[in-house]
Amino acid sequence: MMKDHYRVIVIGGGIVGASVLYHLARRGWTDIALIERADLTAGSTWHAAAGFHSVNDDPNIAALQSYTIQLYGEIEAESGVNVGLRMPGGYSLATTPDRLEWLRSSAAIHQTIGIETRLASTEEIVSNCPIVDSRGLLGGLFDPHEGAVDPHGATHAFVTAARRRGADVILHNCVRALGRLPGGEWQLGTEQGAIVAEHVVNAAGLWARRVGRMAGVDLPLTPMQHHYLITDDLPELLGRIDEMPCVTDLEGFTYLQQERKGVLLGVYERNPRHWQVDGADWDFGRELLPEDIDRIAPELMIGLTRFPSLSSVGIRRWVNGAFTFTPDGNPLVGPVPRIRNFWAACGCMGGFSQGGAIGLVLANWLIDGDPGLDVYGMDVARYGAFASNDWYLRETTAQFYARRFVMAYRNEELPAGRPQRTTPAYDAQKALGARFGVVWGMETPQYYAVGESEFVDLPSPRRSPAERFVAAEVAATRTAAGLLDTSVYARYQVRGPGAARWLDWLIAAHLPALDRIRLAPMLNPMGRLMGDLTIARLETDCFWLVGSYHLQEWHLRWFRDHAPPSGVAIENISESWIGFSLSGPKSREILERLTRADISDAALPFLGCRTVDIGFSRAVVGRLSLTGELGYEITVRASEQRALWQALLNLGTDLGLKPIGLRAQDSLRLEKGYGVWSLEYTAAHTPAECGLDRYVAFEKGEFIGRAAALAVRDDEPARRLVLLAVEALDADATGHEPVYSGSRRVGHVTSGAYGHHVRQSLALAYVDRDIASAPTPLTVVVLGTPRPARILAEPPYDPRGLKLRAAV
Ligand SMILES: Cc1cc2nc3c(=O)[nH]c(=O)nc-3n(C[C@H](O)[C@H](O)[C@H](O)COP(=O)(O)OP(=O)(O)OC[C@H]3O[C@@H](n4cnc5c(N)ncnc54)[C@H](O)[C@@H]3O)c2cc1C
Questions:
Q1: Best of 323, 332, 342, 397 to mutate for ligand 1, by most ligand atoms within 8 A of CB?
Q2: Would you say residue 178 has pLDDT above 90?
């Protein structure tokens, strides 16, 4: 019986919606219902190959995938519904030396995540998977947690268990409209009548974009076609008792799993096709799409070469179905920014690896106000409106699909959806040789290939040839000055009477005095980090908060959730105010050429800020830098950024000023041991672990997260952030590499780079507290090879910060 009011309504009875319902019920919420347009599994779920694996590039998502996999046994036991779990493990094949090295490196990184993969020889693979042709095969990676479930059984198991715990399930009832009641609750217009709900969860899979639009949001996801085939019985499998491990031919764009005595072969073709980009039609049934074999023929032929016996048996069934993709292939989960009590649990391309975890995270978030762990990689707020642009979305999702098994390297800049947003200085930077990367849709210089217009940085896990340009930029910054485009900083203006009081509660640090800047960690109620902002006080009641550009929706959602009192206005000025960081020993001299204002150390000391005329602009100038040098962040109206660029270069070049990119900044910041958000600082960490506790003002009175942070204030954290010198060869650590003391794994790297000035490969890493307090010789596994490393007691460049504070 459908009630007319629920606390939570989950729209969609696929594997994801079923898991959300189950996890809410498991947390004890029973005033909840799942509404399904047709029958359970009627979207992508019914015809999925339903394979799963624990491995993912994002360690947090990998951990969640492991959770999903171990849950299958539990829900089968609880519900009594057979989920059809098979877990023979799986091999990822390497057919090039680069791939083998990549797999070796991945295996080391999996140890960091706690996933026990291992390298496997060609002999082992062929012996366990006799249908694999060994020609060109160099080995592979074995993941013991690879397998498949029955998609029908798994979905019904979640729903049955949820029902037993008190949840309602309403089938054959399409939700056609979403509106707000004056009290703020949702009113759902459904085929069976109106229902009111406090929260709505969009788990509508193929229809999720449509359901999002009903609530007023265009979510960045879109359906794409996907083929697999199932063969008749194969002679190699007929007499076999155990199930053959799954096989993914990474260079061959195919995956394969045993299906009764035949196999299922799936294809990730390089020429993918979208399908109903706005979401499926409401009346789309359990239909397959017509096969498009010509389009997938190139990859299919590779598959038939790698698995030759497939050519000699018939094809029992072709499946061409659709499921949804996001630009980075990860799902969209969590509270949808700007739309109160509307939750995303969609955009999931790996429902059988991730569905269980999405349910867990969403239920935690909805009930506790926090997902319980760092889930930024699947947070719906990791995107902004830019990502829902039709062209951008189609290009980036196609790119993701076509590169599903393609190796990605740190120095690689992918072309899809670009250039979407550029700063006014873009063309001028390009003319000087800038090579751009993209941050949240914004083109941003990575380095300047000065004098080598033909230079192309080929993707590689090793130190890139582009490092020679980076080295020159580092040298310029250390000896004269470097000019970095800071359009990749987000800026929020908080203004109005009460702004200081509100910020004092929002931020864990002391607020700065007038004309001053402070580093300002922001905490959540659990005492974990929510931001590493810098905060500048421009007027008594006007502050600028500066943070990472890609966190705009994430931070604004947090600000809104902790809304300021009326009279305090928060404005996102990230697009309208942009500028440069000018740093290096000559930076003051250069800036003095552009202004009559007094910018001496007395007038503009370290961590001071002032509004002064710089060139033709009235600029906000803050004295700080991430390079460890005397430096200024100069921020002007966007329309004046181009002129400022030219003025700085015109008047600075003779003093040695050079434009620099983000790669140089990385090298420079690591020489100082400075962390950044997303790498060293994340929502998984406390300020004590990463050293930001020195900015936490426990004594100032109440602020968000104070009680939790106070409770552990005197405890030594279990792990600490340290700076490592790594005896690297031709590759630097990039992140997630395990750190060992002897045979004991004691931590993992968060980021690494070559310190060009100090001539040392450097890495920041979290290590166990005993290791941090009594440093011993360590090893870091870089590209699968253990390299000696040691903890640096102090940063190798200017440990006392004299340059940064340069008073003269
Ligand atoms: C050919 C193919 C092979 C695949 N292979 C794999 C694989 O091996 N491993 C893997 O993990 N994934 C695989 N997938 C992907 C997998 O199917 C999806 O990740 C998963 O099914 C997504 O589940 P979902 O619950 O998000 O969406 P869906 O299954 O699409 O469910 C959404 C549900 O919402 C309902 N709904 C929508 N709008 C409304 C509304 N307005 N009112 C009421 N109900 C509504 C729909 O009827 C539907 O039942 C494959 C998919 C295909 C097509």
A1: 323
A2: yes
